[in-house]
Design goal:
By secondary structure, the chain is α+β, with helices and mostly antiparallel strands. The chain folds into two domains: 103 residues, Lipocalin; 256 residues, 3-Layer(aba) Sandwich (Beta-lactamase), CATH 3.40.710.10. 25% of the residues lie in helices and 25% in strands. It contains twelve helices and 19 strands. An eight-stranded antiparallel beta barrel has the order 12-13-14-15-16-17-18-19. Helix 3 crosses helix 8. The radius of gyration is 24 Å and the shape is globular.
């Protein structure tokens, strides 16, 4: 049992020092371990379709797995189009950068000049919206979305916070940025993205209107999503609603790494914060001197991630036509930092969502047979958690538990699998499997 506890502790440590034997700045294909991981994600029914793109100093490389629709056989590919979700925010911010390069707008322009009846003088500026420093809430008001009405958004502009505020990610702020660009130019955000980003970068199928011939079917897990779930009202298009493919998103990333002209480089330098010190739209991750520009988007049956690092010229795009609560995005992070981020395991079965009521039979305290360690299974914010403690009450580890379709549970990081024995509506014991090892824990209370 002591060996089990040791392995549990080590397995849940932060991912680091995972030497993989390849440098993604020098490869000339998608590494086989990455391809194998994505294929397992499809084979084990975690995702319907996945495509990944890699650009480095040697060229562009793609790998695609699965199908466009669970009920059809058409392969998912780098040209399959998906809704990019919050990746849209980067495009909105880059429209701002492009217009600023043309002197059509100024990052310091106050929204009071556009909407004096809503904003206050000396208040929010365009640049604050693009950098999430406008002191605005995260969510777009429901009334704005329901009625495609800008008024509930504009009503947020009267904030009396000291500006620029601390960074706070805001969908509302990016939606307002899109509206402000429309108000300033007299053109729709659709037209601005087409003329200032998609057109110059030759992204023929990137925009707010999907290409019916390329659009992949969205799925929640393996279930197709039908209807208008991905139709974003125009009032919110600064924050979401853009459609694109892996191939075109990789072109977008590639141009940031390898600009076609000095003018294009100046545009991207402004967007990446090399002029002002703060990136517009992009998120930034820094570790040990490495800087990664990135953004992700998911929901309503799609997932997308873009990221790149300028020190070695590596860029990555990952998209899927299914939403799932898993570690798929970690594959892209691995390609950006292969020696620091491990590839996830998709050997475990897909997770299913349980209601709080369905979790109740399993919640409580347990002890391992033949050992002094105890386990508490609890519910937190609608999720189940496994917490292990020593006999002295010291916490060994806490990790989220996932339910599978066969009535079992597992921890993803190990993986450790559970099968509970339930009597009279309450779990009385559980059998645990870790590789070839088997353990039993019994309920204490």
């Amino acid at each position: 049992m002591k060996a089990f506890i040791c392995l549990l502790s080590v397995s849940l440590m932060p991912l680091a020092g995972c030497v993989v034997g390849y440098d993604t700045a020098n490869v000339e294909r998608i590494p086989s371990p990455v391809e194998d991981t994505l294929q397992r994600a499809v084979d084990n029914e975690h995702r319907v379709g996945i495509a990944i793109g890699l650009v480095n100093p040697n060229g562009r490389y793609f790998s695609a797995h699965g199908v466009n629709d669970i009920s059809a056989a058409e392969p998912f590919s780098q040209h399959s189009q998906v809704a990019t979700g919050s990746v849209t925010k980067v495009f909105t911010a880059e429209v701002l950068a492009a217009l600023a390069m043309e002197n059509r707008v100024d990052l310091n322009q106050e929204l009071f000049e556009l909407w004096p009846g809503h904003a206050r003088p000396g208040g929010i500026q365009l640049g604050y919206l693009a950098t999430h420093r406008a002191g605005l809430p995260r969510d777009i008001p429901v009334a704005a979305l329901q009625h495609n009405d800008a008024t509930p958004l504009l009503d947020l502009l009267g904030t009396d916070q000291v500006l620029p505020a601390e960074y706070e990610y805001s969908n509302a702020g990016m939606a307002l940025l899109g509206l402000a660009l429309e108000e300033t130019t007299g053109r729709s955000l659709d037209e601005l993205v087409a003329s200032r980003v998609a057109g110059p970068l030759v992204l023929a199928n990137t925009g707010y209107v999907p290409n019916a011939d390329l659009l992949a079917q969205p799925h929640e897990g393996l279930e197709p999503i039908t209807g208008d779930a991905n139709r974003t009202p125009s009032v919110a298009r600064g924050a979401g609603g853009l459609y694109a493919s892996t191939a075109e998103l990789l072109t977008f990333v590639e141009r940031h790494l390898y600009p076609d002209s000095s003018q294009q480089k100046a545009w991207f330098d402004l967007a990446l914060g090399k002029v002002s010190g703060t990136p517009l739209g992009w998120k930034v991750y820094e570790q040990n001197g490495i800087r990664i520009y990135h953004h992700g988007g998911d929901g309503n049956g799609y997932q997308a991630f873009i990221g790149f690092r300028t020190d070695n010229g590596v860029g990555v795009v990952l998209v899927s036509n299914s939403s799932a609560d898993d570690d798929l995005q970690q594959v892209a992070q691995h390609l950006l930092m292969p020696d620091a981020v491990s590839l996830p395991s998709f050997d475990y079965p897909p997770a299913v969502n349980l209601s709080v009521a369905e979790m109740q039979p399993y919640l409580g305290r347990y002890h391992f047979v033949g050992d002094t360690n105890t386990v508490t299974i609890s519910e937190q914010s609608g999720n189940m958690y496994y917490s292990e403690f020593t006999a002295r009450g010291e916490e060994v580890r806490t990790a989220r538990m996932y339910a599978d379709r066969e009535g079992g549970f597992y921890l993803r990081q190990i993986p450790l699998f559970f099968k509970f024995k339930v009597t009279s509506g309450k779990a009385v014991s559980a059998r645990l499997r870790l590789g070839n090892n088997r353990f039993t824990m019994e309920r204490i209370e």
